[in-house]
Amino acid sequence: MAEPKKAKRVEPDDGADKSNPRGGFPFFVLLMIFGLLALGGYQLMLTGNRSAVDYGFFLQEVQSGNVKDVAINSLTIQGKWENLKVAQEAWLKYKATKEAPPADDAAEKKPAAAPKAELTELFTTDVPALEGEYPLRLMEKHGVHISSVNDNFSVMLLQSFIYLLPVILISVFLLFAMRRSADPMSSGMFGNFVRSQAKRFRPNDLQTTFKDVAGMEHAKRELEEVVDFLKDPAKFQRLGAEIPKGVLLAGPPGTGKTLLARAVAGEAGVPFFSINGSEFIQMFVGVGASRVRDMFRTAKENSPCILFIDEIDAVGRVRGAGVGGGHDEREQTLNQILSEMDGFQANEAVIVVAATNRPDVLDPALLRPGRFDRHVSVDRPSRLGRVGILKVHVRKVPLGENVNLEDIAGSTIGFSGADLKNLVNEAALAAARDGKSQVDRIDFETARDKIMMGVAREEVLNAKERRMTAYHEAGHALLAWLLPEVDTVHKVTIVPRGRALGVTQLLPEEERFHMGESRLRSQLAMMLGGRAAEKLVFDEFSAGAEDDLKRASQIARRMVSAWGMSERIGPVAYRDGEEHPFLGKEIQETRKYSEQTAFLIDQEMQKILIHASERATSILEDNRENLDRISDALLEREIVSREELIELIGPKRVEADVVASV
């Protein structure tokens, strides 16, 4: 059996469009230039080899009888001398007299050299407009033969052409550009507009490999087959296997989807074309589809290669959800992508890699086998993955001896790859601001606090506001410390950060992928702990608990209407809105349940929140001394760390006790 041929790589051309036979210089432009030259030559022929003389000299020669005949054209007189030699001598004398120096300076200056004779047999002169009929009467008196010449038409034509030349040139340029843009793939002005905006990265520019990608072992294993196929397509084609034509990378923002695509191209050593999904959509109809055709044509010419489309959900959303129906520009662009990926013609050795944060809104035709066959989920890294990512980003950062990357990875649960890169950069900036030669542990803690809690604000609170804020944060911290289901308190501060007057920072000690009802109820009690502490100490509520109430209400509503954690509601999911693929957001719609059910949901939600608030108040009443200790420490130091909390109120409880049963 014959072995399949290996895909031949075509080197890109120099950018010239050799297939367009109309790319030459227009013939009518040459014709216009030739007409301009002919018109100028005609005017020169009319003028001839004539010497221009002054009007005064002309009158002098008429009076001396040395003018044979003349031809009058408006205010111009052209003629012929009776005796050229006499006219030349008279011209020399006339110019010498005209250029002679004043009488008082004649003795001081040397005599000037005699001027050369410049007259020819034919001459021309301009008649002043105020002369009237005087030169005509004078020439009649001295027997000069007079005739008239009318070449105003050629002069007017030449002047009109000169005046209209800019307009003609602009019109020719626009006509030439429109002619070239008749072919969407031409290199004319409008042809460049509809061309693909994909950027090509040369192999020497692609330094990213799988060694630079840490924490995504599952995704890298899925993409290794793509790399093997690009290196040796015949290995798979020999057994009749087909490599996936499209690979969809789906995951939260900042998890490294683009980095993975660059690593695949770097490992395979093939051309890498990158484009964003929004670059296909323009205000002109048909531009997106033209760009898609040009992009795939360029990719096929440089095959094998990788075509990376970032944020494909900008153009690949479900069809029929937008305005305009099937004539929508976005849908036409999507249809062209579908045709190019799995159309009538085979598309070999061009692998399309796409990335999106919203795989749920993509069109099903885009996700079917034959187009994006392989779906790779790129999630946030695990603890081991975060350690690897930190090692990659600290290669060029001098670290202090007290920096432990495993501890940093354990305190950054939920961070994406981009977040970890930002953490290392912020730590380096903090060390540079302090004039350090190395980045130590304090710099990483400062950077983490800045990312998680916000930048400290320079605001001065009065004594009452400061004391109320201290008890509010102490209530959060104490409940988080006493409830074993809640994450451990890492730091408590009353320094205004971000949009909050105080912050209680919690750091999970282990990674969790779901939460039970008991943990959610403890979480609600902790959220309402600040409000309960204010009521307990000051006998009033403050507006500082707005964000706590908002987040607690959202959790309670989902517990009742989405997660079935209410005995009266039962295992039923009620949604107040639906996500529209075209809008990409959840919008309010008519409820699909009765008002009685809505009232019941509100009652159950209120019941859960009231129970959480009463539980928080009861725990704080039983531990009032510890609440006062934490508050006094915050008023004194403004920041209380985890170690200081252990000194104040003892270690965190890790087993259920009588507190959890309240």
TrEMBL record:
Gene3D superfamilies: 1.10.8.60, P-loop containing nucleotide triphosphate hydrolases, Peptidase M41. It is found in: Cell membrane; Membrane. Binds 1 zinc ion per subunit. It is a multi-pass membrane protein. ATP binds at G251, P252, P253, G254, T255, G256, K257, T258. Its cofactor is Zn(2+). It comes from the Bacteria. One of its GO terms (biological process) is protein catabolic process. Its EC number is 3.4.24.-. The active site is at E473. Its main location: membrane. Residues 243-382 form the AAA+ ATPase domain. Keywords: ATP-binding, Cell cycle, Cell division, Cell membrane, Hydrolase, Membrane, Metal-binding, Metalloprotease, Nucleotide-binding, Protease, Transmembrane, Transmembrane helix, Zinc. GO terms for molecular function: ATP binding; ATP hydrolysis activity; ATP-dependent peptidase activity; metalloendopeptidase activity; zinc ion binding. InterPro entries: AAA+_ATPase (IPR003593), AAA_lid_3 (IPR041569), ATPase_AAA_core (IPR003959), ATPase_AAA_CS (IPR003960), FtsH (IPR005936), P-loop_NTPase (IPR027417), Peptidase_M41 (IPR000642), Peptidase_M41-like (IPR037219). Zn(2+) binds at H472, H476, D548. Homohexamer. Belongs to the AAA ATPase family. Acts as a processive, ATP-dependent zinc metallopeptidase for both cytoplasmic and membrane proteins. Plays a role in the quality control of integral membrane proteins. This is ATP-dependent zinc metalloprotease FtsH. It comes from Planctomicrobium piriforme. The lineage of its organism: Bacteria, Pseudomonadati, Planctomycetota, Planctomycetia, Planctomycetales.
